[in-house]
């Protein structure tokens, strides 16, 4: 057997091993999502005793949805509306402030610029849960707890977005373009709005996706800030539903709620589907945003 033949066989084996490993990781990630999609179509007994990936019926899916809707006078719709309000409100503020702060740090030489960058990095490393208690005390002082602002304002603090915008504008925005704009008499605000902002569309898409995912899945902050059930977002509200069902809490065996495992799976699906839909529509911007800034100029 020649050297070329042995080398070709070795590469064939390596490709087969690599393909097998990738398929294994793909199945590991995909199978739970398929199970979550199929679970609400089955009854509780079918879910426990049947094949994990079998399909039940659309009628059972409708009954599971109706059980969730019937909970506490259809408060589910209010939770969905609250989640959209909290997520979109935080997204708009965090993306706007991140772009402006990142642009200012990248193109100007303001006093204390390095100190601000260091503080931004430190803020990125602090776990958000560690700040919930001082934020609660601060917002309680100004009587904002149990309001939409108590969730939107803290979630708008986005140091990761500021640093990402700083990296993007430092590496991808040509300084010659800004100088040409200044020579034409454009103001600093005009440079940002007419030159930097149109070139930052991939960055805006990336920041919007990360911010939306973080705020849509936000559980601990709304759980601490909100005390009325009608003001919960979807994760906190569904957590209250799940905690009251005997399906996952046997201590609630006498509960009258018709919430069993299919309804719990449908609740999980409600949280996952919006993120999956947004990812499908934004994936082009996500790839361009991640790659932008990796190569200077």
TrEMBL record:
Q: Which GO terms describe its biological process?
A: transmembrane transport
- An example of a Pfam family matching this protein is BPD_transp_1
Q: Which residues cross the membrane?
A: 21-38, 84-104, 116-137, 149-169, 203-221, 264-287
Kindly give the SUPFAM superfamilies that the UniProt entry links to this protein.
MetI-like (SSF161098)
Alphabetized PROSITE patterns for the sequence: ABC_TM1
Occurrences of domain ABC transmembrane type-1 (ranges): 80-282
Membrane-topology descriptor: Multi-pass membrane protein
Subcellular location, record wording: Cell membrane
Its keywords, alphabetically, are: Cell membrane, Membrane, Sugar transport, Transmembrane, Transmembrane helix, Transport
Cite a GO CC annotation.
Answer: plasma membrane
Q: Which family does it belong to?
A: Belongs to the binding-protein-dependent transport system permease family.
Q: What is this protein called?
A: Multiple sugar transport system permease protein
Q: What is the lineage of its organism?
A: Bacteria, Bacillati, Actinomycetota, Actinomycetes, Micromonosporales
């Amino acid at each position: 057997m020649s050297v070329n033949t042995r080398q070709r066989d070795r590469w064939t084996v390596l490709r087969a091993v690599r393909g097998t490993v990738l398929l294994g990781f793909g199945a590991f990630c995909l199978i739970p999502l398929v199970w979550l999609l199929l679970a609400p179509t089955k009854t509780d007994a079918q879910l426990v005793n049947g094949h994990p990936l079998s399909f039940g019926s659309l009628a059972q899916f409708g009954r599971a949805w109706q059980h969730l809707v019937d909970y506490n006078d259809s408060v589910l719709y209010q939770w969905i509306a609250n989640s959209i309000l909290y997520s979109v409100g935080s997204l708009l503020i965090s993306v706007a402030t991140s772009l402006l702060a990142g642009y200012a740090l990248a193109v100007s030489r303001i006093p204390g610029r390095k100190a601000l960058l260091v503080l931004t990095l430190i803020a990125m490393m602090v776990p958000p849960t560690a700040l919930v208690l001082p934020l609660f005390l601060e917002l309680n002082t100004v009587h904002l707890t149990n309001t939409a602002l108590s969730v939107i304002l803290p979630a708008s603090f986005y140091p990761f977005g500021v640093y990402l915008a700083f990296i993007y504008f430092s590496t991808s925005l040509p300084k010659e373009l800004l100088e040409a704009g200044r020579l034409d008499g454009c103001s600093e605000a005009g440079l940002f709005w007419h030159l930097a902002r149109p070139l930052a569309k991939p960055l805006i898409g990336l920041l919007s996706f990360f911010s939306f995912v973080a705020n849509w899945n936000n559980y601990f902050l709304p759980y601490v800030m909100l005390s009325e059930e009608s003001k919960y977002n979807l994760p906190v509200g569904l957590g209250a539903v799940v905690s009251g069902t005997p399906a996952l809490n046997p201590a609630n065996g006498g509960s009258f709620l018709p919430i069993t495992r299919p309804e719990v799976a449908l609740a999980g699906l409600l949280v996952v589907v919006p993120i999956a839909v947004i990812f499908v529509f934004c994936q082009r911007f996500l790839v361009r945003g991640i790659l932008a800034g990796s190569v200077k100029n």
